[in-house]
Design brief:
Elements: H1 2-11, H2 32-40, E1 48-53, H3 59-70, E2 74-79, H4 91-99, E3 104-108, H5 112-121, E4 126-128, H6 136-150, E5 164-168, H7 173-181, E6 188-192, H8 201-214, E7 220-223, H9 226-230, E8 235-238, H10 250-256, H11 264-267, E9 275-278, H12 289-292, H13 299-319
Parallel strand pairs: 1-2, 1-3, 3-4, 5-6, 5-8, 6-7, 8-9
Bound molecules: phosphoric acid mono(formamide)ester (CP) and norvaline (NVA).
Length: 323
């Protein structure tokens, strides 16, 4: 919810696309004093956050580095050419050494076990900046975007109850993050992946555990038919068919995903006021220019929200973290 306060303070202009999906309600702004205090607190003053990235990044790096700076801290980018993350030095040693000198670690890794190993041995908080399994910071930005589309200027996640999101694409980290997040908030997920691309059991199990613990009325439906997935949905979303590290499978994947490109024709099968979302980076094969740059697309608002949600997440988990 602090992402909204940060955005209001640093941006102070109208939110594009505000209130445009079904059931939108405008609510009053509030909690000004608390917001002002939050922004003034500079919770990363004198602190350094290591960005340990073994893969490329535009949004996560730019949103993350600018967020650390706004909180008064210094980001230290350590790319795969700079440090020994899993190369020539164990993750255990790297984690012990780096965490003895910095105040937080943001890690973009290959296999999810790498970020878990870092976290296990680190003496400071570690945030996952993307693994093969999850991408939590992305879905925080998606949630902020969805709330803006539904109930602008609020932090009211409950307003998302009953919204249906259609995913037409690969079974990957972004979809997994949606599966473990949305149903708990009462958001339905209608998923289409091609034959041979099943949902990942680990993520499904975690989604079900979350539901069992916290309740939540969102349903997950899985099909191999994009038309069925988009039926009645308020949001259509997808991601690249070839995630980082899967480049060798490109030819096969391009063939397997035939019929999965999001086009205006596909959007017609959704709710009349449906919007299009995408975590980016985007390639033309999964969504054509007409949709991606068209008036249903909220992708650049979604991308910008990476910054406001990174600010809120770093403030809470790096800045205000205590042993
Ligand atoms: N969406 C996202 O994480 O983008 P980057 O890979 O550019 O950081
Ligand atoms: N699924 C993509 C997401 C990039 C933000 C990947 O893992 O490469």
């Amino acid at each position: 919810s602090n992402a909204v306060a940060f955005k209001k303070h640093y941006k102070s202009r109208a939110i594009p696309q505000a209130g445009r999906i079904a059931g939108a309600q405008f609510q009053q702004e509030g909690a000004e004093a608390k917001d002002a205090q939050l922004v003034k607190s500079k919770s990363l003053d004198d602190k350094t956050i290591a960005f340990m990235f073994s893969k490329r990044s535009t949004r996560t790096r730019v949103s993350g580095e600018t967020a650390v700076k706004l909180l008064g801290g210094a980001p230290m980018f350590l790319g795969s050419g700079d440090i020994q993350l899993g190369v020539n030095e164990s993750l255990y040693d790297t984690s012990r050494v780096v965490s003895s000198m910095v105040d937080g670690i943001l890690a973009r890794v290959g296999h999810h076990s790498e970020v878990e190993t870092l976290a296990k041995h680190s003496t400071v908080p570690v945030i996952n900046a993307l693994s093969h399994l999850y991408h939590p910071l992305q879905i925080l930005a998606d949630l902020q975007t969805l709330v803006e589309l539904r109930t602008p200027f609020t932090t009211d996640l409950s307003s998302l109850e009953g919204v249906t999101i259609a995913w037409v694409g690969d079974s990957n980290n972004i979809l997994n993050e949606m599966m473990v997040t949305y149903p708990r908030l009462g958001v339905n997920l209608q998923i289409a992946t091609p034959e041979g691309y099943p949902l990942m059991q680990e993520a499904l199990d975690r989604a079900n555990e979350g539901l069992a613990k916290e309740g939540g009325k969102g349903k997950i439906i899985h099909t191999h038919d994009p038309k069925e997935a988009v039926k009645g949905a308020s949001v259509i979303t997808t991601d690249t068919w070839i995630s980082m590290g899967q480049e060798e499978e490109s030819a096969k994947r391009l063939k397997d995903f035939a019929g999965y490109q999001v086009t205006n024709d596909m959007m017609k099968g959704a709710a009349p006021d449906a919007v299009f979302m995408h975590c980016l980076p985007r390639h033309k094969e999964e969504v054509d220019d007409e949709v991606f740059y068209g008036d249903k697309s909220v992708v650049f608002q979604e991308a910008e929200n990476r910054k406001w949600t990174a600010l809120a997440a770093f403030d809470a988990f790096f800045g205000k973290w205590k042993l």
